[in-house]
Design goal:
By secondary structure, the protein is mainly α. The chain has 14 helices and six strands. About 2% of the residues have low confidence.
Length: 350
């Protein structure tokens, strides 16, 4: 009788053992998938993952491996293929968070949930400097950015030429995606430019016989002359007086720009004959393009210029970075002599 019950008990033990094995197997499987999908894997080695335009999964995997972005590259790769990410790589700048799981990390990459770049700038002397600055913030390189500004066909669609196209870039703070194409980048710049040029401002420009690019070109000269914003409307009024009278602008910043030597502090007579369309001592009217990227305040100063009778200006002899203004050449010569004497006394020869 004991042997018969023993046989039944053995079967029950077998069933229990089988159930235990199945539960353990399922548990192991769940743990397997959990660790590969939901377990923390992203390290804190890098703040961002940059995926360049045209890169495939192999390139992304190499970057992740070489920079130690994840602890376990094998589980990342396994999860990426199982989530079908390998064939859907999207370029961009992705913020990494230490402890992210493979699933969350890969999902972010799949959806292209990249972080925007804040591009904030004020003024630049040249478009080369501007392109160099932008290339450090965005994917596009400086040569490519310059190529578009120097492309007659490209800038023509926005109503510019290669001399004045730089004025479409207006200093401000922009939110952009890191991998934005140069075409879309300049389209964004132009949209901002167009927003600034309201019908009222266009009318203001027309009232002084200038178009929008010409206003910005004059504003670049005003900006280069003025250290203090409160002097800008006065300087703008002076130059507009010279333009109306058909006088040469005779602006020192145009000479410095023509020579591309921004270390010059004293514009000497020998510089005034430099052969350049930007030399306003030789050529009447505005130069063909800006001598720097003008600030918004400088553009507004031209549009809201001070009505005055000034024709001449020279830096003050006290080196306050302000100016003495004059309505006639006799007074200007007195002011200029004071400044030349101050330069000599401080041994400023260049």
């Amino acid at each position: 009788m004991a042997k018969q019950t023993s046989s039944g008990g053995t079967f029950r033990k077998f069933i229990i053992a089988l159930v235990v094995l199945i539960v353990l197997g399922l548990g192991g499987t769940l743990i397997f998938y959990y660790l590969r999908y939901f377990g923390p894997n992203v390290t804190g080695n890098e703040e961002y993952l940059y995926i360049h335009t045209g890169e495939d999964f192999n390139d992304v995997y190499k970057t992740i491996r070489d920079k130690g972005i994840v602890k376990d590259t094998a589980t990342f790769s396994w999860a990426a293929y199982n989530m079908k990410y390998a064939g859907h790589v999207k370029p961009g700048k992705y913020r990494l968070h230490e402890g992210m799981s493979n699933r969350k990390f890969i999902r972010m990459l799949q959806l292209g949930e990249q972080e925007q770049v804040e591009l904030s700038f004020h003024v630049f002397r040249t478009k080369e400097q501007f392109a160099g600055f932008v290339s450090k913030k965005l994917e596009a390189d400086s040569l490519t950015l310059l190529h578009y500004l120097d492309s007659a066909d490209f800038v023509k669609q926005y109503g510019f030429n290669t001399d004045n196209a730089f004025v479409m870039v207006m200093p401000d703070t922009y939110q952009l995606y890191w991998n934005i194409s140069p075409e879309k980048f300049y389209k964004r710049m132009y949209m901002h430019y167009e927003t600034f040029w309201t019908p009222e401002r266009k009318q203001q420009a027309a009232s002084i016989n200038l178009n929008e690019p010409q206003v910005s070109i004059l504003a670049s000269i005003v900006d280069a002359e003025a250290v203090y914003d409160d002097e800008m409307p006065t300087i703008a009024g002076l130059y507009l007086n010279r333009l109306r009278k058909g006088m040469k602008l005779e602006s020192d910043p145009t000479i410095i720009f023509a020579m591309h030597d921004f270390t010059i502090h004293r514009v000497l007579n020998k510089y005034l004959s430099v052969n350049s369309p930007y030399n306003t001592y030789l050529h009447t009217g505005l130069p063909p393009g800006p001598v720097m990227l003008p600030s918004v305040n400088a553009v507004k100063a031209v549009l809201n210029y001070q009505k005055n009778d000034y024709i001449y200006m020279v830096a003050k002899e006290d080196f306050s970075n302000r100016h003495n203004f004059a309505t006639n050449v006799a007074q200007h010569n007195i002011n200029a002599q004071k400044f030349r004497k101050a330069l000599d006394e401080h041994n400023i020869k260049k």
